[in-house]
Amino acid sequence: MGVKPDFPFYNGLPAELGGRGWLLVLGAVLVAYLQLVLLPLPGFPLNFIPVILFSVIPLAALAWVGGAWTSLFRRYGPREFGLTILFGLLTLVVSFAAGLILTFLTTMTANPVLVSELSSTDLALLLVRSGIQLVGEETVTILPLLAVMWFCFQRLHWSRSRSLVAGVVVSTLLFAAMHLPTYGWNVIQCFGVIGVARLVMTVSYLLTGNLAVSIGAHVLHDWALFFMSFAGAHAPIDPAAGAS
After folding, report:
1. How far is CA 98 from CA 26, 141, 189, in A?
2. What kind and span of H or E run contains 164?
3. Where do the TM regions start and end (predicted)?
4. Residue closest to 142 by CA, chosen among 222, 90, 71
5. How many CB atoms lie within 10 A of CB 181?
6. How many CB atoms lie within 10 A of CB 216?
7. What is the pLDDT confidence band of residue 78, given thresholds at 50, 70 and 90?
8. What is the Cα–Cα distance from 219 to 188, expressed in whole angstroms?
9. 198 near 175, Cβ under 8 Å?
10. Residue 98 buriedness (CB in 10 A; 0-12 / 13-18 / 19+)
């Protein structure tokens, strides 16, 4: 039985990025996020451009500095597919539970995407565009995790496990903070619900070392929410339901 491959980059394998390389990669993560938030392009097909750049810019920067970007991904087979489904469903359960608990502390802010008002064609375009964006969301979460892990392991000489915990904490906080503009700067919701859900998706990467699994789990989670909202708004109305 083979040894499970380790996480990439933090220990100089399969490539040593160095401080300058990591600064360039993290700079690319910031640029990718800012262009997504500050330069929205309305309407199809222009609104696909920011999400494509959001996903491509960080990976392109990683490749540019000599990082083997493909090491973020591993073989995807039946086991990985099963884990994708498992963690997608687990993320749904955890986010619903966290949201329910926090309704006693704050008013939840609705997602500004009004799925209930979309046509079937618009929904299909939304699913494709969100799927591309979620590739970027996973990339801009895991790359900072690995960067923090590298810094703690190589520069601070922390243990691997302690460095990994630091990477998970920082990347989770960054992910939650990225959603603040979307949810009206609702701090409790972003850190208490989205941050908790983020931990589940991060665990899917930590267990598999495969970004494709966490991407798939994230897509399953978001698409399930979109479908539920759309189905609820377009459900057949029973004429007898309004009778007294």
Report:
1. 30, 21, 9
2. helix 160-178
3. 21-42, 48-69, 81-106, 126-151, 163-180
4. 71
5. 12
6. 24
7. very high
8. 23
9. yes
10. middle
